[in-house]
């Protein structure tokens, strides 16, 4: 395919005569594409990244058309891949993703310029020579390319397997942390329930003691708590251990405060 592409390029040169060399135009367009790619990659926001990516995609499209015209196959494929990456950059909704594709296109463009230069040099060197296709060399090149692709595929598989292991490890760690958190919360709820039972019993005893003292002093006014201190265990679910303690401490304060006020009034009356 490379030899055939070069032959087509030479045929193109013959028929064009003194016309502008398409590869010269392709090199010019590729230079513009590289300049726009660098600006797209170097931008600091998605708006400017995609602005230059759009210009680069247009330049890569021109390179693709010009290299297809005269059969510079490798450069044509690189131009197509770079154009596709720039178009992918335009479709992204985040700066990081958009920049990722511009980086790929920029790297491809460097190789594109090399291939265009090489293609042009070979075309000038071999313009007056017969093109001989060697089947054995093509098979060897194809085998080498296949070997490279297989190595790349194996590396990708290895990377994917490693990523899978890392993900599974993270999930296991998260599950472990969740179980530890649930166990800690269950233990805390047990402590809250124990405090609830003991505190309510103690407050009830305190209330009864104050009521008995009130009767003993012939106090006519009925003694009542300022607020209810009896709670259901389901109410403990929405608060911490410290919050449960604070609740009963506050109830005890309110109870003693009410008692002090009542007995203070009794003393004043005396």
Summary keywords:
rod-shaped, mainly alpha, disordered N terminus, 270 residues
Brief rundown of the structure:
The chain is mostly helical. Residues 1-19 have low confidence and may be disordered. Helix content is 82%, strand content 0%.
Gyration radius, rounded: 41 Å
Tally of helical segments: 7
Largest sheet: none
> Averaged pLDDT, please?
81
Q: What proportion strand?
A: under 5%
Q: What gross morphology would you assign?
A: rod-shaped
Distance between the termini: 118 Å
What does this 3D model show about the protein?
Residues 1-19 form the signal peptide. This is DUF4398 domain-containing protein. Residues 136-219 form a coiled coil. This protein is mostly helical and 270 residues long. The chain has a domain at 175-268. It is 82% helix and 0% strand. It contains seven helices and no strands. It has helices at 2-16, 22-42, 46-70, 73-91, 95-125, 135-216, 241-269. Residues 1-19 have low confidence and may be disordered.
What topology emerges from the helices and strands here?
Layout: H1 2-16, H2 22-42, H3 46-70, H4 73-91, H5 95-125, H6 135-216, H7 241-269
Helix pairs in contact: 2-3, 2-5, 3-4, 3-5, 4-5, 6-7
Keywords: Coiled coil, Signal
Protein name: DUF4398 domain-containing protein
Organism: Aquimarina brevivitae
